């Protein structure tokens, strides 16, 4: 853990930030795109499962490990960044509204519950659909049989935890520690989160950016990273587990079945 007042701290953290940006650029710029294009051509469920397992473990190691390492270095900067955000007029007005109006608090809580129920409910409403609208090039990620379904669970929960720890907490605090500006930290981290989904095409980048804005707003409004983690995981579980189960009945498909070619047009996810 580095002291916020040490003169060398910004320089050390600048090196860490540059290394982390390099990792993200490598993944988003070439590696993820190549692997996803190869994954879309797989017709064997064993090969698909091997790649899905690889993605879960690598994400857990790289993103999860990076988040823990960075947070161990910058943890004293977390309250400093949040304190600066609390001075923003918009945030101050929001806090005042909640403090003076119990109805506003009830509407906020009700809106959050309604959002979660809506995510689940839309999957059931579309249970008789032949295909589901996709946001970005994400169709190939949908589990196609019972054996692949467990990776839908793993990818969703893993993304909810490690991506929120990295892009909603560790990354913005690291940028704040280097540049001393919370607004820059938040905006840059949101852009990076969107670009991390470049393998899904323009639609995937835009969708991830919008989702990131919602999750960041939830984090700043509650002051807890737990709620963004839960919402992110639920959002991905809807796409990678609930839709395959409810709409495409993949739980009825044997472990060696359900391996249509890459032109299969079903499904939607925005992991």
How does this structure look, described?
The chain has nine helices and no strands. The protein is mainly alpha-helical. It has helices at residues 9-41, 45-74, 77-86, 89-100, 102-125, 146-179, 182-195, 201-222, 226-246. Helices cover 74% and strands 0% of the residues. It has one domain (9-252).
Indicate the topology.
Layout: H1 9-41, H2 45-74, H3 77-86, H4 89-100, H5 102-125, H6 146-179, H7 182-195, H8 201-222, H9 226-246
Helix pairs in contact: 1-2, 1-6, 2-6, 4-5, 5-9, 6-7, 6-9, 7-8, 8-9
Features:
271 residues, 0% strand
End-to-end distance: 32 Å
| Count of DSSP-assigned helices | 9
* N-to-C order of helices and strands: HHHHHHHHH
Beta-strand content: under 5%
Query: Measured on Cα atoms, how large is the radius of gyration?
Result: 20 Å
Overall 3D form: globular
Average per-residue pLDDT, rounded, comes to 84
Helix fraction?
over 70%
- Unreliable segments of 5+ consecutive residues: 259-271
Number of domains: 1
Which structural class do you get from the secondary structure elements?
mainly alpha
